[in-house]
Automatic annotation (TrEMBL):
<feature type="domain" description="Na+/H+ antiporter MnhB subunit-related protein">
    <location>
        <begin position="43"/>
        <end position="166"/>
    </location>
</feature>
<dbReference type="InterPro" id="IPR007182">
    <property type="entry name" value="MnhB"/>
</dbReference>
<feature type="transmembrane region" description="Helical">
    <location>
        <begin position="106"/>
        <end position="125"/>
    </location>
</feature>
<keyword id="KW-0812">Transmembrane</keyword>
<keyword id="KW-0472">Membrane</keyword>
<dbReference type="Pfam" id="PF04039">
    <property type="entry name" value="MnhB"/>
</dbReference>
<feature type="transmembrane region" description="Helical">
    <location>
        <begin position="70"/>
        <end position="86"/>
    </location>
</feature>
<comment type="similarity">
    <text>Belongs to the CPA3 antiporters (TC 2.A.63) subunit B family.</text>
</comment>
<keyword id="KW-1133">Transmembrane helix</keyword>
<protein>
    <submittedName>
        <fullName>MnhB domain-containing protein</fullName>
    </submittedName>
</protein>
<feature type="transmembrane region" description="Helical">
    <location>
        <begin position="46"/>
        <end position="64"/>
    </location>
</feature>
<feature type="transmembrane region" description="Helical">
    <location>
        <begin position="145"/>
        <end position="169"/>
    </location>
</feature>
<keyword id="KW-1003">Cell membrane</keyword>
<dbReference type="InterPro" id="IPR050622">
    <property type="entry name" value="CPA3_antiporter_subunitB"/>
</dbReference>
Length: 194
């Protein structure tokens, strides 16, 4: 092959520009700092931004529907935990949100307290542990709403599961940041070169 028959070489840096095309250029998608900006993709961040609130609403639906159909605090908490996992994978903050600074152990503890107090409260009135009471709230011509006291138990389990998932994400993220610091990389929020 002669030099005139060879295909022209791509300009220098062209492959790099193609690789950077899908990376977000700023912090406009999700709040929080991503440890490695090179691993972020715009498609995943956009999907996480759209799916995160939808999945959280679905988890609340599972929580409330659990007394009359499939669902409850455990399955609703797991679905909400999956929303936080999706957000974490997309490079977002692993807190409940940029506006809420709730520590996962506090969430686990409050969920456990709500669940235990709800389970033991009927004993104060002479009923067995985990006994339920049903309240009916009437809205005039619009109908009524039945609320079961065991819904509080499910809310406690829901909070507990979300707290466990967030604590797991936090511990995994701290391990990644520690490994990056040990490798000498610059890690946002602590202890890197810079």
């Amino acid at each position: 092959m002669t030099a005139s028959q060879e295909k022209p070489a791509p300009p220098p840096g062209d492959a790099e520009s193609w690789a950077r095309m899908d990376q977000p250029s700023g912090r406009w998608m999700l709040p929080g700092a991503c440890p490695d900006v090179r691993e972020r993709t715009l498609v995943l961040e956009a999907a996480a931004r759209l799916l995160f609130p939808v999945v959280l609403v679905f988890s609340v639906f599972l929580l409330l529907e659990g007394h009359y159909g499939p669902g409850g605090g455990f399955s609703g908490g797991l679905v909400a935990g999956l929303a936080f996992v999706l957000r974490h994978i997309a490079g977002g903050d692993d807190n409940l949100g940029s506006r809420f600074r709730i520590r996962p152990p506090v969430l686990v503890g409050s969920g456990l307290i709500v669940a235990v107090l709800t389970a033991l409260a009927p004993v104060a009135w002479g009923d067995p542990v985990l006994a339920s009471v049903k309240w009916t709230i009437t809205f005039g011509p619009f109908g009524y709403l039945d609320i079961v006291s065991s819904l509080l138990l499910d809310v406690g389990v829901y909070l507990l599961i979300i707290g466990v998932v967030l604590d797991l994400l936090r511990s995994l993220g701290s391990g990644i940041a520690r490994d990056a610091r040990e490798a000498g990389e610059d890690v946002p929020g602590g202890g890197g070169r810079g």
